[in-house]
Amino acid sequence: MNALVFLGEEWFTDTHTLTFFDEGTIADSLGELGYAAGTYGWYEGAPTTMPDPAVVVAH
Predict the structure, then answer these.
(1) Number of folded domains in the chain?
(2) What is the domain range of residue 48?
(3) Rounded to whole angstroms, how far apart are CA atoms 35 and 7?
């Protein structure tokens, strides 16, 4: 993930790898811990270079 972050007149680049696990593995692992987890496709129209981006939401 690469993000250009603005704080007032200051800014910085936040660059890091989020995870190497696919969303199904993450959701299953969270489910085993007692969380309800769902997977969703990336935000429609969002610019990204990730090959198959997804979001996992747990509660």
Answers:
(1) 1
(2) 19-59
(3) 34
